[in-house]
Amino acid sequence: MTPQIGYGGDYNPEQWPREVWDDDYAALKLAGINTVTVGVFAWAHLQPAEDRYDFSTLDAIVARATAEGMRIVLATPSGAMPPWLAHKYPEACRVDFEGRRHVYGQRHNACPSSPDFRRLSVAMAGRLAERYGDNPAVVAWHVGNEYGGACWCPRCGEAFREWLGERYGSLDRLNDAWNTTFWSHTFTDWAEIQPPNMLSEHWRGPDHTAFQGITLDYKRFMSDALLGGFVAEKAAIREHSAHTPVTTNMMGLYQPIDYHRWAPHLDFASWDNYPPEDPSASRTAARMALAHRLMRGLRDGEPFWVMEQTPSVTASRNVNSVKRPGVLRLWSWQSVAHGADAVLYFQLRQSRGACEKYHGAVLDHAGRTDTRVFREVSEVGSEFARVGDAVLGARTPARVALLVDWDSWWAVEMSDGPNRNVRYMDVLTAYHRTLWQANASLDVVPVTADLSGYDVVVAPLLHMVKGDLAERVTAFVDAGGTFVTTALSGRVDEDDNAFLTDVPGPFASLLGLRVEETDAQQPDVVNPVTLFGTEYEGRHVFEVVIPDDAEVLGTYGADFYAGTPAVTRAARGRGSAWYVATLLDDAGVATVVRKALDEHGLVGPLADVPDVEVTERVSPDGTRHLFVLNHGEARTVECPVGGTNLLDGRALRAGDKVDLPPAAVLVIRQDQ
Amino acid sequence: MTPQIGYGGDYNPEQWPREVWDDDYAALKLAGINTVTVGVFAWAHLQPAEDRYDFSTLDAIVARATAEGMRIVLATPSGAMPPWLAHKYPEACRVDFEGRRHVYGQRHNACPSSPDFRRLSVAMAGRLAERYGDNPAVVAWHVGNEYGGACWCPRCGEAFREWLGERYGSLDRLNDAWNTTFWSHTFTDWAEIQPPNMLSEHWRGPDHTAFQGITLDYKRFMSDALLGGFVAEKAAIREHSAHTPVTTNMMGLYQPIDYHRWAPHLDFASWDNYPPEDPSASRTAARMALAHRLMRGLRDGEPFWVMEQTPSVTASRNVNSVKRPGVLRLWSWQSVAHGADAVLYFQLRQSRGACEKYHGAVLDHAGRTDTRVFREVSEVGSEFARVGDAVLGARTPARVALLVDWDSWWAVEMSDGPNRNVRYMDVLTAYHRTLWQANASLDVVPVTADLSGYDVVVAPLLHMVKGDLAERVTAFVDAGGTFVTTALSGRVDEDDNAFLTDVPGPFASLLGLRVEETDAQQPDVVNPVTLFGTEYEGRHVFEVVIPDDAEVLGTYGADFYAGTPAVTRAARGRGSAWYVATLLDDAGVATVVRKALDEHGLVGPLADVPDVEVTERVSPDGTRHLFVLNHGEARTVECPVGGTNLLDGRALRAGDKVDLPPAAVLVIRQDQ
Amino acid sequence: MTPQIGYGGDYNPEQWPREVWDDDYAALKLAGINTVTVGVFAWAHLQPAEDRYDFSTLDAIVARATAEGMRIVLATPSGAMPPWLAHKYPEACRVDFEGRRHVYGQRHNACPSSPDFRRLSVAMAGRLAERYGDNPAVVAWHVGNEYGGACWCPRCGEAFREWLGERYGSLDRLNDAWNTTFWSHTFTDWAEIQPPNMLSEHWRGPDHTAFQGITLDYKRFMSDALLGGFVAEKAAIREHSAHTPVTTNMMGLYQPIDYHRWAPHLDFASWDNYPPEDPSASRTAARMALAHRLMRGLRDGEPFWVMEQTPSVTASRNVNSVKRPGVLRLWSWQSVAHGADAVLYFQLRQSRGACEKYHGAVLDHAGRTDTRVFREVSEVGSEFARVGDAVLGARTPARVALLVDWDSWWAVEMSDGPNRNVRYMDVLTAYHRTLWQANASLDVVPVTADLSGYDVVVAPLLHMVKGDLAERVTAFVDAGGTFVTTALSGRVDEDDNAFLTDVPGPFASLLGLRVEETDAQQPDVVNPVTLFGTEYEGRHVFEVVIPDDAEVLGTYGADFYAGTPAVTRAARGRGSAWYVATLLDDAGVATVVRKALDEHGLVGPLADVPDVEVTERVSPDGTRHLFVLNHGEARTVECPVGGTNLLDGRALRAGDKVDLPPAAVLVIRQDQ
């Protein structure tokens, strides 16, 4: 196989008669497809009963795909258990947040603590690896599917207590972490601890808990418990397939699982790109860029895969619009622009029945190849072929980091007070959008990342401060870095207990201020913030700041704290530390972030052309490719570099006027 | 008893001391009441313990009603079980959609699969028939009450599996019907099949299912299971009462039960008319007309009964407004105008306590006969008496048919994709409203109806195409008929699996087009559709149509499919087939429907007078009565026919100017 | 201890290391704190296992507080059970309205019918009383905490049946009370009766029940069941502490518990003042005033305590704003102005973790005493010290009564029909607001109160008429009183069964009218009511009134009942009876209420100065203190009395111009 961008998607020939397979391959070749993901959800097919396996169909599927020259992504089927399993082992089904034991149905339905499910899923993974592990067409293992959800069954309760035992060692330490003297919760026996749900600590739903510490630990535990299934299947695969990389398809900005805890166990990252509908194309583009960067950041910048995207429509939304002409191509290239080495679809042939029968596919129910969708799929396939292996393995250098922390995400959204309308992802995406529009060279990394390679670190809602983070941030600033953080940062320690010091806790001295009060208001209440002479809108939370030696850059315009600081900057060592004490509107955020980037000259190319995205990938041999993507209206821009647009072979000089129609894509191999 | 329109209502003397009975009959006579429904919900009274019956009060009630010359509708009490039954047989209570076993409470609360409930309810029906079956005053049997709801208990699970066994014969066929290779659902043992609810295939509620086929079959099964109770009680009645007709009070446009599956088992149709509050009087009127027609269509056009309506207010709504002056009379006559031979109230005397104590009644808590409500009830009674038997048994000839299909209703609303904001009844009522305003001679019939007697067939959202429907529609068009259908029609087969052909499946060739894509948009997004030179609004779904030989009559005005077909018409044989590829606004629907009616000269009288409804009933002897009802403002109209208004004895010539004040009613016996 | 207004709050030193205690007392002294509430939620600390008690920490806490000269409010810890209790006795946990047994979590979580919980909580109360009952620093016992919620477990079912047995004596009487002939509900065995919840009589939630009588009785039962726990703990305390008063912290306008049933068992009333956020400061002030008056009315006008208020923010709301400068002082004085002899905070030191870690406190996480909040707390402390014992024990004479009735509150909100948008508290607060703005001398009392001491009685939504109420109201009017009531009054008897007479039942003849119909409309529908020449807005319900000898003062302007009475007044004996047949807007309510007050010259001082509240307390020796509180903008007013403002020592003559800045407070000791 010639190395080239992976292109293909989920393929379930076991759902179709053999004559359809011939049509499929004829069409897929037309479309430039080179990769098929097989075996997802095929468990009932592969193992019709606990004591009976039947690989005959999968053998034929793999043989045919191999014969057709496809690269095969081979999935373990554990994303959906077969009916016989649930029937024989009812405790393999989950207990939900309401405390109800489920019976058989849907998918992603297995309790991660069920020994029977574990045994059977791992056995299946091992058998698949044993049977297909030495087929060189198998280029990757795809374990399970979109891990997610949670279980609150008694067995998970037991596993939770074991997990807590390992984490805390003693009940005294656990009682301290959870602050159980509050409301008479001191646990005197491990057995007293219950999974936190609507029958115990919660009311009104998953975000309302009496004991944040218990719920936080359950989220951590459940993320680990699900990971346990992945790790066990991977180990079974490794017994027969020593080198083929193993991944699972993640879901980008997905709150329930801490992908940073998963990252070390993946051989490469992959994810499913289904952005929520948003009337703003550039907001959607920026959101996808954030997810791509988060996924890339899991494995320290290594290329990742887009394991799924839809060629046309989704089916699971209330309203499912079709991708407009050119959008499929634009988004496919955006994936590559951010570091994807493969872009796959769900799915190659449209389902006949059940809840995804209207989900888009490369081939529709009639199997036509003369549709708009098929034509656009083929165009992308043809461009990927043209570009060949040019960007494979290339990485994206970055001098700016955006910190993401699942613990802070969880903690800030389940906090009682000050304001439940503050949503972590709203604030994160607002700060990211301005970095995206600035075309800054950006990594999205965990709080444990080494900050020393960056010049600017942006950390909105860094609510929880764990380990040596404050020390590392301080060192980063001392060494010349610019640090930007916001309201509600520095509030709690790893156990979600308040720091018994001035707010913002370990950042107070770095930022040169203390927060005396935190006001909160309804979403329609605006407090105007004047910043560098311009007025912006602050909303939701308004911290009353007592500056120490921080410079006051912006002030509130209203309420009893009018005239007090809303934005500050403290010079520290060779660097600076910015604080934004309220949630600013987009323009306000942009002003702060641009100033921070300016301190290091890190505003990127075409930053002032709305909706035009520019990224770079640098190959191991030093070749640089610049991607220019237009998510908005037609624009004419100056080419930021000299080189050759690989998509049309045209030579471009830096400064050349280039027309960018809507959905335009340039892939410029830069002159050395 | 002189034959005359049945007039009366639910009457529960067992809830009142005997002295009240005297007052009741004095008042009811004043009001012209001739019919009483007794025994509804009287189970605890009739059978205070499993081994003890007590008919003494009912004997007295029946004797008194008989003595007063009333016609008696005798109800079986199975609509609400007594406390002792639930206490002794807890499994007679239902398990709800959340999987919770209910205990005693409310009504309509019995599991249809409970053998104990079945045994006891059937025994009761038999005893009632044995005791009162030869009383000639008993003119009808009323089994249970407003059958509805559903149960998801283990016994229903068993019954479901039996039902499936009969339907499919083999698991292979069932797996194919449900497309179970998707998500590893292949069933290998009947016992693995679970009732679909929140503990199995559903999330977010009854409309969101992972497997449409399973949920669809459960709806069919539950409709049949409830019917099973009716059929068993009817059989017990028939052992002692060979000829008295048996019915149950249905609920019109009621989604959970497929009344077309029930119709063959009813001796006549009857229903309860409680239209939802709607600020538009004519929308309400049209909605009631649709329900009347649907009920009339159950038994091939035979007269039906309105078993319940409120004389003034409901109590179960959040906001319960009183019927405005004249409305009771107008709606009562509307019932007759559409084929009712009886119009009854819930209830004759207002309840003293519990959840219907504020529900309206002919007699209020004080028993007054000098209230507005009592006066209006009496006026109707007096008019019914005046009209006598003139329209009894008369039928309504129709050349236009509107197709209603519960399977399509269920399927389109539980579909994942393209748009959950599409509600079957919204679209059906929109198409019906324009037929109603056109005063077309209209039947509302199932998809199995013989179409050969119609000139125009309108079939909105005919999502599912079952049996030989496509062939029959094609034959209808070939023979000169006009067929009108819409977006989302022709999508799935009887199992809710997509047709593996061009959309709209078996209608594609008849309509002369294929649908390549289906776009969906939020409710506030409009795509203007230009049709015969006028612009209308399309919403929700926008199918991208590739016409074959269909004539393009309307086109989209916006988006990437601007200029492509939105409304088409294909000439076929001697007829034509229309397709509306989006959901048009009312004016757009009216334009299409009027054109279709015009092809056959079927626009009815006074079609251009807003809110004036005209219907006709033709007696077996050929006498024709025209009903003219004004649901809007005062109008002066030209009398469409010559004849005599039975309500005031006035002679009218065709073309005479007639003043129609608000709520006016004419019942014109037409000159021969 | 010098007698003085109690000032302090909840204090949990057991949650902190000893060194923090020193800081606490140093700070609390600075702030003028003289009272600490200890022991709330300390159960797990005091009794780490069923067979092990440990009072060592509480001993130290009490000793230290005593040594510091604090008055101690000693709490029993039964508001939150320890984990071991729930683990050992799972049936001590509640079953919720959905029928789910809860496991350990949160607080206020014990089943009131659990014998184990009862035994253990009572034993604990007894031990505390035994140990600390003779400490003279202990000035009050505080049993449990914010009693509330409910349980629907089988044991509560049993207890409910026993309670019913005592209430009704026989099933016949119960069947009559519940009107069980409706829907076949006749109970033939006590064991058939189920707690009413989502598994029995309810749908859509707690307000929707098939049998109002059952649900109403369950509310009464549950209020009594919770009271049973209080009474039992109090009895255990009394064995060792004969004279120290016992209370519990109530919650003001709290629907689930009928505080009038509790009142006789309290030695003094106390409550927690957390008004819901309302953008209108004066609405909030009036609402708090209503709650203060309701609490004062529990014990016939005796002084009460504010047991909790927040010094700054809450944490449990979605949006938690800080109290603006001056508000803490204003509201603290408002409490005193309405009869509070103590004003306490939750809490003295801010929690470190769990769901109240962001709830405000006198001392924040850093323990600072230089914050705005601490300064304001200290200012109040200093003013309380200045005023000393001047108003302690003083009472508030009143000639106007507002009737509050939990049964009516419950009944009207769970009624099916006429309008679920009618909320008891909305109407009550609307009538109260105008009495509040009028600075009328007002009591808020139960329907059982002696009315003979009042001149005006206002009774909105007096839905249920119990006992001899109608007779007492009639006697009150005959004797010269003015009675004002509204739509939906006089509808049902004590069992929630309709009166079988004209509406409004026993008030019809007093009011000189009957209500023939009750129309209801959506919230946006207005029917204009012309009253004394001015037009006001009526909404929600519109009763059609047939006047007998009542004078018509206001009429509807629209709909078919335009021109008919909307407001009437009947002269009776030496008094008058007003009826408002719709829900008027605030201005309309004010017009009616002012007229009624005017009949007796009871409009109070400064009634026409918006947002300025005036109340009076009269000491046993006859000294009168007038409180003037400005909840709005700056105003200059004429001093209504001569005297001395205790807060600044300034002498004031009646008629003096006094500037009232926002949040101004005057406490004027009146010249004799």
Automatic annotation (TrEMBL), chains A, B, C:
<keyword id="KW-0378">Hydrolase</keyword>
<dbReference type="Pfam" id="PF08533">
    <property type="entry name" value="Glyco_hydro_42C"/>
</dbReference>
<feature type="binding site">
    <location>
        <position position="111"/>
    </location>
    <ligand>
        <name>Zn(2+)</name>
    </ligand>
</feature>
<feature type="binding site">
    <location>
        <position position="156"/>
    </location>
    <ligand>
        <name>Zn(2+)</name>
    </ligand>
</feature>
<feature type="domain" description="Beta-galactosidase C-terminal">
    <location>
        <begin position="611"/>
        <end position="669"/>
    </location>
</feature>
<feature type="active site" description="Proton donor">
    <location>
        <position position="146"/>
    </location>
</feature>
<comment type="similarity">
    <text>Belongs to the glycosyl hydrolase 42 family.</text>
</comment>
<protein>
    <recommendedName>
        <fullName>Beta-galactosidase</fullName>
        <ecNumber>3.2.1.23</ecNumber>
    </recommendedName>
</protein>
<feature type="binding site">
    <location>
        <position position="145"/>
    </location>
    <ligand>
        <name>substrate</name>
    </ligand>
</feature>
<dbReference type="Pfam" id="PF02449">
    <property type="entry name" value="Glyco_hydro_42"/>
</dbReference>
<dbReference type="InterPro" id="IPR013739">
    <property type="entry name" value="Beta_galactosidase_C"/>
</dbReference>
<keyword id="KW-0326">Glycosidase</keyword>
<dbReference type="InterPro" id="IPR013738">
    <property type="entry name" value="Beta_galactosidase_Trimer"/>
</dbReference>
<dbReference type="InterPro" id="IPR017853">
    <property type="entry name" value="GH"/>
</dbReference>
<feature type="active site" description="Nucleophile">
    <location>
        <position position="308"/>
    </location>
</feature>
<dbReference type="InterPro" id="IPR013780">
    <property type="entry name" value="Glyco_hydro_b"/>
</dbReference>
<feature type="binding site">
    <location>
        <position position="107"/>
    </location>
    <ligand>
        <name>substrate</name>
    </ligand>
</feature>
<dbReference type="Pfam" id="PF08532">
    <property type="entry name" value="Glyco_hydro_42M"/>
</dbReference>
<dbReference type="GO" id="GO:0046872">
    <property type="term" value="F:metal ion binding"/>
</dbReference>
<keyword id="KW-0479">Metal-binding</keyword>
<dbReference type="GO" id="GO:0006012">
    <property type="term" value="P:galactose metabolic process"/>
</dbReference>
<dbReference type="InterPro" id="IPR029062">
    <property type="entry name" value="Class_I_gatase-like"/>
</dbReference>
<dbReference type="InterPro" id="IPR013529">
    <property type="entry name" value="Glyco_hydro_42_N"/>
</dbReference>
<keyword id="KW-0862">Zinc</keyword>
<feature type="domain" description="Beta-galactosidase trimerisation">
    <location>
        <begin position="398"/>
        <end position="602"/>
    </location>
</feature>
<dbReference type="GO" id="GO:0004565">
    <property type="term" value="F:beta-galactosidase activity"/>
</dbReference>
<dbReference type="InterPro" id="IPR003476">
    <property type="entry name" value="Glyco_hydro_42"/>
</dbReference>
<feature type="domain" description="Glycoside hydrolase family 42 N-terminal">
    <location>
        <begin position="10"/>
        <end position="385"/>
    </location>
</feature>
<feature type="binding site">
    <location>
        <position position="151"/>
    </location>
    <ligand>
        <name>Zn(2+)</name>
    </ligand>
</feature>
<dbReference type="GO" id="GO:0009341">
    <property type="term" value="C:beta-galactosidase complex"/>
</dbReference>
<feature type="binding site">
    <location>
        <position position="153"/>
    </location>
    <ligand>
        <name>Zn(2+)</name>
    </ligand>
</feature>
